């Protein structure tokens, strides 16, 4: 679902309050040049049938991009999301490709597996680099041959699945280290999307902040506060190691602890040494003694001499 905030395009989950609990980012905007280019590439890839590899840091919104690719395609099947890091190495084959009835103890019925569940739709494999190498080989065969053989089955079953994979690591380095299948990497490389970290798209921060304020204000039945100029500077200067998910948590917290009609820097609970230094300097310039101001001038003169 697309919205507008600050007049800018915003991509979110439909029914955001019902979005999967495991998701790390529920909204993306396309304000800075790099995200705008990303959106153009996304719109070009979505209608095609090729597999897509999304690279980006944890919490930056990779699954949201994958879901948008699925919605923008003509595939009528399900979007099936799988965290590869949570797949048991022992049962990875059965979990991904399914198993036939009676293939192991307690399996009176068959199961389609994640691949079968995504038949006609999109299979999203998050952190695909965590898949064991033997499973990577079987995955490549399933993608190339459009069929899977369930554990315990004697014949393959046809499948029509589009793969969208995501990774927070450089898979080329994993290939060089022998930890990722080279042919699978090249298969995925035909359609690649690079999702920049939030700190690399500063122009997106305020739009996302306004969006999260609106969402949580509505959910908690609270008035929507303004974000003060000082708070805006804090938000734009923060490094955001947790990306969009961290920003969402910070805005949620600020809404709960703020009072009045404005969000201030102290409501954000962020380490913001530069703003604190600026605040102290302004206090000295405005209310400090002559000796304090002179000491400040000498300090600034020494700083100007630094290389």
Short descriptors:
disordered N terminus, 307 residues, 14% strand, 5-stranded parallel beta sheet, Rossmann fold, Helicase, Ruva Protein, domain 3, alpha/beta
Describe this structure in words.
- By secondary structure, the chain is of the alpha/beta class.
- It folds into 2 domains: 33-195, Rossmann fold, CATH 3.40.50.300; 199-304, Helicase, Ruva Protein, domain 3 (Orthogonal Bundle).
- It is 44% helix and 14% strand.
- It has helices at residues 33-45, 62-72, 92-97, 113-117, 133-145, 171-176, 182-188, 205-220, 229-237, 243-257, 265-268, 273-287, 290-304; strands spanning 2-5, 8-12, 27-29, 52-55, 79-83, 122-126, 147-148, 157-158, 162-167, 192-194, 226-227, 262-263.
- The strands form 4 sheets. Strands 5-6-9-4-10 form a 5-stranded parallel β-sheet.
- Residues 1-9 and 13-25 have low confidence and may be disordered.
Lay out the secondary structure:
Layout: E1 2-5, E2 8-12, E3 27-29, H1 33-45, E4 52-55, H2 62-72, E5 79-83, H3 92-97, H4 113-117, E6 122-126, H5 133-145, E7 147-148, E8 157-158, E9 162-167, H6 171-176, H7 182-188, E10 192-194, H8 205-220, E11 226-227, H9 229-237, H10 243-257, E12 262-263, H11 265-268, H12 273-287, H13 290-304
Parallel strand pairs: 4-9, 4-10, 5-6, 6-9, 11-12
Antiparallel strand pairs: 1-2, 2-3, 7-8
Helix pairs in contact: 8-10
The coarse silhouette is elongated
Number of helices: 13
Provide the helix percentage: 40-55%
CATH level-4 homologous superfamily of the largest domain? P-loop containing nucleotide triphosphate hydrolases
* Structural class category: alpha/beta
């Amino acid at each position: 679902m697309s919205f507008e905030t600050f007049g800018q395009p915003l991509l979110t989950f439909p029914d955001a309050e019902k979005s999967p609990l495991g998701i790390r980012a529920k909204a993306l905007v396309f304000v800075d040049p790099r995200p705008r280019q990303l959106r153009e590439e996304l719109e070009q890839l979505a209608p095609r049938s090729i597999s897509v590899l999304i690279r980006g840091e944890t919490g930056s919104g990779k699954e949201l991009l994958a879901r948008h690719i699925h919605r923008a395609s003509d595939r009528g099947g399900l979007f099936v999301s799988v965290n590869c890091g949570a797949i048991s190495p022992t049962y990875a084959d059965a979990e991904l490709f399914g198993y036939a009835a009676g293939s192991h103890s307690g399996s009176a019925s068959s199961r389609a597996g994640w691949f079968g569940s995504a038949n006609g739709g999109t299979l999203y494999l998050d952190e695909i680099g965590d898949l064991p190498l033997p499973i990577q080989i079987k995955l490549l065969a399933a993608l190339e041959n459009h069929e899977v053989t369930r554990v315990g089955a004697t014949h393959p079953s046809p499948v029509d699945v589009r793969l969208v994979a995501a990774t927070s690591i450089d898979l080329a380095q994993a290939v060089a280290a022998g930890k990722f299948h080279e042919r699978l990497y090249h298969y995925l490389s035909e359609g690649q999307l690079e999702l920049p970290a939030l700190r690399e798209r500063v122009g997106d921060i305020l739009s996302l902040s306004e969006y999260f304020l609106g969402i949580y204000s509505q959910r908690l039945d609270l008035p929507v506060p303004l974000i003060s100029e000082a708070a805006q500077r804090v938000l734009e200067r923060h490094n955001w190691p947790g990306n969009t998910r961290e920003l969402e948590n910070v805005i949620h917290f600020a809404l709960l602890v703020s009072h009045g009609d404005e969000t201030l820097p102290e409501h954000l609970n962020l380490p913001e040494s530069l703003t604190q230094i600026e605040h102290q300097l302004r206090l000295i310039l405005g209310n400090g003694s002559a000796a304090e101001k002179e000491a400040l001038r000498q300090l600034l003169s020494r700083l100007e001499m630094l290389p």
